[in-house]
UniProtKB/TrEMBL annotation:
UniProt GO BP: DNA repair
Keywords: Hydrolase
Name of the protein described by the UniProt record: HAD family hydrolase
Statement: the UniProt record of this protein carries the keyword ATP-binding: no
GO cellular component: cytosol
InterPro entries: HAD-like_hydrolase_sf, HAD-like_sf, HAD-SF_hydro_IA, HAD_2, HAD_sf, PGP-like_dom2
């Protein structure tokens, strides 16, 4: 019998926040400034990793430029991302789940500085019991940030769900034996997400909302 869900952990970019296009544009801008080859597909593929890992994957031949490239990327992103916002329906979903006495958390490849900025931008800090950013722990798919969230909440992995749009999110959850849900409207293809045996793959926020509510309401019948 499935255990009742007490905690739902969300990835941020591409899962809650419609920011993938600007991330790609800013990575391409930074690569161009330092005359590094980069395709939109390659830039998109690494969304979800921590920034040091992004630099290692995308620019492996110029480690001496990583700090400058990442600064250029970050400056460009902050300057041009004013229009980034939650996907339609995310605010309603989060408030609805919160009203069910479910703990909500964030596990993201963003830096703490970047995460704090968008939490403020969306006025959502109080919605989440705990948030973890890649800059203060290990990057996905290492499960350390999930282990830290579980330790903070005192909730076991089998009573939590990780929600994400990339293989990094789902592999991270699989590495700690946590149930997981994919979303197809973000970065990685459905077939890639399916390889990590998610409970489901939601095609939009409305479908995600409905599925998570079903999982939450199991606690009333178990």
């Amino acid at each position: 019998m499935q255990k009742p869900v007490e905690l739902i952990i969300f990835d941020w970019d591409g899962t809650l926040f419609d920011s993938v296009g600007q991330i790609v544009a800013s990575l391409l801008f930074a690569a161009e400034q330092f005359e590094q080859p980069l395709t939109p597909e390659a830039a998109k593929s690494i969304i979800g990793l921590g920034l040091p890992e992004v630099a290692q994957v995308l620019f492996p031949t110029v480690p001496e430029l990583h700090t400058e490239i990442l600064k250029c990327y970050g400056d460009h992103y902050v300057e041009h991302s004013k229009g980034d916002q939650w996907f339609a329906g995310v605010s309603e979903m989060l408030h609805d789940l919160k009203s069910q006495d479910i703990h909500l958390a964030v596990a993201t490849g963003k830096s703490r500085k970047g995460l704090d900025r968008v939490l403020g931008q969306t006025n959502s800090r109080d919605l989440f019991t705990v948030t973890r950013a890649a800059s203060e722990t290990k990057s996905k798919p290492d499960p350390l940030m999930l282990a830290e969230i579980l330790q903070h909440t005192g909730i076991q992995a089998d009573r939590a769900i990780m929600v994400g749009d990339t293989s990094y999110d789902l592999e991270m959850a699989k590495n700690i034996a946590m149930p997981r849900v994919g979303v197809s409207y973000g970065v990685h293809r459905i077939d890639v997400l399916q390889s990590f045996n998610p409970l489901t793959i939601a095609n939009d926020v409305s479908a995600l909302h409905d599925f998570l509510l079903q999982q939450v309401q199991l606690k009333d019948v178990v």
